[in-house]
Write a structure and sequence with these properties.
Helices cover about 20% and strands about 40% of the residues. It is of the alpha/beta class and about 230 residues long. It has 2 domains: about 100 residues, Translation factors (Elongation Factor Tu (Ef-tu), domain 3, Beta Barrel), CATH 2.40.30; about 120 residues, Rossmann fold (3-Layer(aba) Sandwich). Strands 4-3-6-1-2-5 form a 6-stranded antiparallel β-sheet. It has a 6-stranded parallel β-sheet with strand order 10-9-8-7-11-12, sandwiched between helices. A hairpin with a 4-residue loop joins β1 and β2. The longest helix has 13 residues.
Length: about 230
Amino acid sequence: MFDSLKKHKGVIYSNKKLSNTLNHIVIKTEDYISFEPGDYITLFIGGYVPRNYSIANISSPSKNIEIIINTSTPGVGARELKDIKSGVEINFLEPFGNFKYKKNKYSWFIAVGSGISPLIPMIHQAKIDLSNIKIFFGAREEFDIPDLSFLDIPINYTITKPSDEWKGDVGRVQLILKKELDKNKNILNKIYFYICGQPIMINHTLDLLQNNNIKNENIIFEKYSL
């Protein structure tokens, strides 16, 4: 696949923490890069190790490519990018992907960790389409929750390791999703569900949706490897 995709050059413009476990990285590019919501780029870590990262931009084309990385994983990508400095050159392949947004009256988005990255441009497009949007985000601790206030949409947060100060939902993201499924039985097969994150979350969420007789064509997901 690599041979068929155009290679681009970029420079790290910024690397900022979004939470205890997530960093937001901006790559400034020589060319305008076009992409669709849900696409990813392949970065060559250290010049040669390929790693895929979903695009978090809300506008295309752009000379800035935004990605969100999970810094708590043991992989080479997280290790090398966690503290990468502005000015470092990096090569990447043009955007690609099969995780696609579909215009619809109802759009629900479910993510854990850096799985929020491709959902950001999807949510932005859903807002333009005047879709009825719900967002569900799961994390381990409250300090792992990124600031997503720029989306200007209420978000259903839940965590599995709450402190005494935490006043929100507790448990895995599937639990708060189930509550909303139970409240919306009359429209379930009118909703498109977008799911992104680690495989165990995806699999449990798929089981939940299938147990509620959601049609397969209404479920769009992307699994991240660790």
